[in-house]
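Structure first, sequence second, as always.
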């Protein structure tokens, strides 16, 4: 008989997948997504659902579906009972796991990322092969596996594919996927609520077999979180559990990450993913066309060549170009067969924006920062001193200096005739916050990405 919240959660996650195959997607989203199992007594599993209406509808219309799913998840007959989420909170098992934020008890896997729909080519072959091997032998080959690359080249996809593959093969295995920034947020919340850090480590030791942590660069300068991560890392490795990490740079270049951690990373297998070559890019494009339910034959070959050559630095942008083309042909200018001149017309705005990106200018920085904070460029360079506007202004100055190396005096002129010490102050504020403030790190990271840096 399953007993812990974790075991019950695993059963319910598994049952949910079954249910998802048997009900309409909208019904699933509204009634089942986000529900959780809260206790089990004498062959009755109690599920907390979002509203009283949901509880009664599920009971009258989907009880059979749920019980069949439980049968298939567990191999034995369970009755299902439904309660409303809030009302149930107070009766949840008062186990020690309850202290651990629910966040860590969820796998956070996204079924859309699998090995089947990952296209391998020379650019990512080693990363693909190592990921595949790890999903067959977690904890036994390289620990950790570290994948790094620029944005949009499939790191998250592979990380998720490892988790999904392991879960498919062994549904009871305990997989946790998290981005380093979510890990930080959740750890901070946890540390505020409970002084007993050990309980989180114990939780990981007992309840996580495969730890997939994305974008490790977000731990930079977060010394307390890094310390906890280090202990968890060591505990899992000692217990033979698999860790897979992604990073936007080679680990040795991660300034602000603890040297001890970096040296642990180097003990595993560190692999890079390159931008795709033309051939692989075309294969990815074809696979995305098919995934959209379309036929690659409806696209002239030179359309595929053009898109793959113009959007080859980042697969996310390649997908964006295809979506734009599909949207254009479905709504703006209906067409069944896509020719090169049609495609050029449809994706022109995207090409212009990527070309713009190559020529980064001061104005571009100002307008991008303004956009990001829902301000106008004239507010950024103007006189308003409210904290939000001032912060956006300082960030724009910082980026101007950092990305373009513009002299302070020139920055001052561009920002409404301010003198160079005002500029220096503003930049200094951003630099200080960058050391300690996650929000600032995220904002600068996002902005640099938008600026193509
Ligand atoms: P990263 O984490 O490196 O920034 P992602 O894994 O989020 O990149 O990939 C961005 C998008 O491109 C995702 O939709 C992903 O499915 C897709 N993608 C990237 N590489 C491939 C590939 N080799 N085959 C299929 N899809 C890919
Ligand atoms: Mg990613």
């Amino acid at each position: 008989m399953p007993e812990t919240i974790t075991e019950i959660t695993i059963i319910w996650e598994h049952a949910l997948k079954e249910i998802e195959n048997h009900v309409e997607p909208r019904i699933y989203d509204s009634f089942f997504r986000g529900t959780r199992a809260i206790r089990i007594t004498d062959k009755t599993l109690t599920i907390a659902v979002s509203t009283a209406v949901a509880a009664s509808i599920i009971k009258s219309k989907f009880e059979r579906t749920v019980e069949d799913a439980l049968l298939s998840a567990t191999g034995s007959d369970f009755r299902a009972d439904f309660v409303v989420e809030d009302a149930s909170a107070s009766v949840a098992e008062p186990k020690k796991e309850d202290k651990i934020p629910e966040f860590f008890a969820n796998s956070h896997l996204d079924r859309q990322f699998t090995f089947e729909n990952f296209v391998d080519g020379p650019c990512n072959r080693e990363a693909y092969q190592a990921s595949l091997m790890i999903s067959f032998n977690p904890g036994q080959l390289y620990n950790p596996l570290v994948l790094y690359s620029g944005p949009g080249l499939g790191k998250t996809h592979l990380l998720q594919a490892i988790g999904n593959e392991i879960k498919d093969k062994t549904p009871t295995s305990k997989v946790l996927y998290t981005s380093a920034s979510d890990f930080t947020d959740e750890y901070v919340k946890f540390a505020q609520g409970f002084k007993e850090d050990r309980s989180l480590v114990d939780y990981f030791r007992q309840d996580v077999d495969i730890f997939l942590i994305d974008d490790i660069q977000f731990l930079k300068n977060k010394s307390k979180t890094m310390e906890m991560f280090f202990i968890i890392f060591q505990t899992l490795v000692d217990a033979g559990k698999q860790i897979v990490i992604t990073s936007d740079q080679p680990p040795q270049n991660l300034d602000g990450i603890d040297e001890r951690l970096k040296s642990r990373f180097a003990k595993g297998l560190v692999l890079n993913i390159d931008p795709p070559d033309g051939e692989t890019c075309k294969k990815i494009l074809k696979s995305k066309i098919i995934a959209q339910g379309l036929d690659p034959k409806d696209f002239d070959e030179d359309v595929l060549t053009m898109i793959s050559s113009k959007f080859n630095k980042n697969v996310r942008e390649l997908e964006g170009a295809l979506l734009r083309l599909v949207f254009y042909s479905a709504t703006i200018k209906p067409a069944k067969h896509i020719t090169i001149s049609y495609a050029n017309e449809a994706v022109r705005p995207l090409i212009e924006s990527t070309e713009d990106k190559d020529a980064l200018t001061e104005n571009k920085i100002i307008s991008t920062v303004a956009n990001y904070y829902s301000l106008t460029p004239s507010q950024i360079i103007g006189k308003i001193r409210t904290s939000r506007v001032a912060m956006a202004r300082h960030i724009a100055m910082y980026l101007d200096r950092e990305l373009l190396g513009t002299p302070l005096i020139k920055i001052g002129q561009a920002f409404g005739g301010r003198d160079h010490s005002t500029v220096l102050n503003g930049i200094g504020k951003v630099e200080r916050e960058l050391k300690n403030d996650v929000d600032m790190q995220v904002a600068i990271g996002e902005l640099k990405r938008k600026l193509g840096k």
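Margin note: The longest strand covers residues 36-41.
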